[in-house]
């Protein structure tokens, strides 16, 4: 790549988490802050996000190219919910992708895990506030009061004194909904995961496709079907690791020889 600059739309301080990983491979970030990315969908639900997480990240990356005139644009999008097994602890999925407006393809990198303060609470008495503040990591992490459209709705209360005064005023009308603020500039835990995602994107961009030479050759989801150790039937455990080029789709496979434990077998352990 000759042109080593990528545009990033941001009003939420994501550049600090993304720039170092890209600088490590000689890329410079060009910030486009003239655009309110919240208009593409906000966590607090004022504006619903259109499409899935990948569509949303891609829309931001392409817009960054259009507004900056640069060839490369970055798009970052997070999603938060319950963990994929029991859904009982918080879980974050971060996506960062790089759109190449000339060759018209995207290189993407994901980071996921339980490192998140994503949660909501119902507060009916200020006595319960200290526990909530501890769980939310306030004031280092933001806390959003109420829901959009409600009189109590507020997402920029920076100090405990301001928060308490606001809550005391609105609690007289009944219990209040509180939620962790997932905007990157108000959530250092989220910023750390975006940083991990940026490191993984940098690794991907540094890896050229063995067939077409385009950057972004990298590991994709493994192929399922490892045989059960007891009965030999295919399971959902991986039987091969796979790498693929996001531009020409050339793939490489590495077969795994390990059999799967019968605990993953639908025949032995239905
Ligand atoms: Zn079996
Ligand atoms: Zn290729």
Could you explain how this protein is built, in words?
The chain is of the alpha+beta class. The protein has helices at 15-23, 53-68, 129-136, 160-171, 188-205; strands at residues 5-9, 28-32, 72-82, 90-100, 105-113, 120-123, 143-145, 176-180, 218-224, 238-244, 251-255. The strands form 3 sheets. The chain has a 5-stranded mixed sheet. A 3-stranded antiparallel sheet has the order 6-8-7. Helix 1 packs parallel to helix 5 (188-205). The protein is flat, with a radius of gyration of 22 Å. The N and C termini lie far apart (51 Å). The relative contact order is 0.13. The mean pLDDT is 92. One zinc ion is lined by residues 228, 230-231, 233, 262, 265, 267-268.
Main features:
alpha+beta, three-stranded antiparallel β-sheet, binds zinc ion
- The coarse overall form would be flat
Bound chemical compounds: zinc ion
**Structural class computed from helices and strand pairing:** alpha+beta
Largest sheet: 5 strands, mixed
What is the H/E string?
A: EHEHEEEEHEHEHEEE
Q: Mean of residue pLDDT?
A: 92
Number of strands: 11
Spatial arrangement of strands, main beta sheet: 2-1-3-4-5
Please count the helical segments.
5
Low-pLDDT runs: none
Distance between termini? 51 Å
- What proportion of the residues form beta strands (DSSP E)? 25-35%
Helicity level:
10-25%
Radius of gyration: 22 Å
